[in-house]
Amino acid sequence: MQPKDIVAQFITDIHDQRLDEAKTLLAAEGFEYVGPNMRFLNRDDMLAYQFGMVAIQKDLILRQLSADGEHVFAILDYQTNFQAIGDVRLAVWFRVRDDKIQTVEAFYNAAVVENMLGGNLPSAS
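Structure for SnoaL-like domain-containing protein, as requested:
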């Protein structure tokens, strides 16, 4: 599979709340997620956080997906059932190596998430 196809499948799995399937697309060793207000150094921690967000996820809309070699870029609208958050626009940069997503770097308005979590943000393991 091409990097763009791997990321598209990952986004579909997250959208459909199939986190076990999404996990298989992430590198088991050396994985890193970096966002504006949290960082995870392994896929299990990142997906555990995502599992917590499933309860408020109304929809995940892929607006744009483009690739340049191993670099894949996505623009997403994360719609929630949680009125305090509302909808969050995400820009996400994925790096795919050896048919696995190695790194995920997300860009979004972190203040919205911080307010929801009351300042209790997960930290790197």
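Strands lie at 32-34, 39-40, 57-68, 71-80, 87-97, 100-107.
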